[in-house]
Amino acid sequence: MLIFIHFPVDIAYIHITFKADIMAIAKGQHHSGKIGHLVGRVFNGKQVLQSIGKKPNQTEATKRSATLFGTNSSIAFWIRRILCNNAEKDSKVNYRLNSALYAIIRQCHDKANNSFTFTKDSFDELRGFEFNLSSPLAYYLSLKPQLRVEGKHLIVTVPELQVPRRFKFPVNAVSCAPILDVLLYVPAEGALWEVSYELEEINNVKGSVSPQEFSMNFPPGCIGLVGISLFYYSKEHNLKKMMNSKAFSPAAIVGAILNPGIPTADDLGTSWNDDEDIKLKKCQIFGIRRIRFSRPKRRGITSRVTYNLKNYRS
Question: pLDDT digit string (tens) for 84-93?
Answer without folding.
Answer: 878 999 999 9
